[in-house]
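Recall the central idea of this unit: under ordinary conditions, the amino acid sequence of a chain determines the structure it adopts. In this exercise we apply that idea directly, starting from the sequence alone.
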Amino acid sequence: MYLPIDPTQNEASPQDLIQSLPTRAARRRVLQAAEISIDVDDKNFESFLNELSEVELRRAASELRFAGEPTVYYYRVNHLHQLSPDDALGRSNNESSSGAYGPDVETAIRDHDRIYVVCQVPETGSQTQLTLSSDDRETTVATFKPRTQLLAVRASDDGTADASLQAVLSYLGLDDATRISFLDNGFRGRFEDACVDGYSTLRLRNTNPRDSSREIEVRSKDPEAKNVANVRTDVIVEDLLQRGDTELNAATGLVTVPTDVRSMEHGEPLHPRVTIGFPDGWVAFEQFVPEQILIEFDDLVRDSL
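Accordingly, the structure predicted from this sequence is:
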């Protein structure tokens, strides 16, 4: 089963959703986030799952239905902070639907004190492509905390994220939004101070059109190490970034996020591995993470703006 799911088209039970997770590690993270103590390695796991209360099952489902291994694209939306939860939820889907010809808002849901807007978008993200089959459309999720301006769109690529944004703006009756850049106005420094443990890989972009080499990649000797050897502090990297024709393009590393989810190997709070697209305002999670981590990460981004 692919995540996120569209609840208007998928009636799978919470047990089915948990069982369909791709790995035991993913199941473990969801159950830890939902504060449910079940050993996913136990041969009776399915029976234990069926003995959970409806409240526990709903809590677990809310940790996974919009989660997964997403790429999150961040936008600053003008006037979004003026919308109350009732304003966001009390709208007709028909107000913004582009139907078969483009991105379509399916539903809006309130959960975790946030608003989730579920969209269906043609695979290319294009509004001009005729797509009558649901198989040709991607489920995306846009989410925000009421009374704030940051919109987080979970989608597979830039075009699909931008198409989802347009559907959400139309649905909410808004018309002005910009993709954030981690390179703007000291944002990157505040963000890194707040949560980045270190980068194992950095990609630098050469902006000088006369140079033949357009990208420089710097790697640590052990990019999979638990304690990241932070190549961001390497003197060569520092020297390159001082040049006017070089900027950070992307980086992969570990981040610290407030969470109840524990690492299976070390028993410590999970430090998710992410790749950050600095100028284009996106973050890709390299492993399955539950909703709890995605929410906390969004909050870190918003607080660093």
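The CA atoms of residues 30 and 143 lie 19 Å apart.
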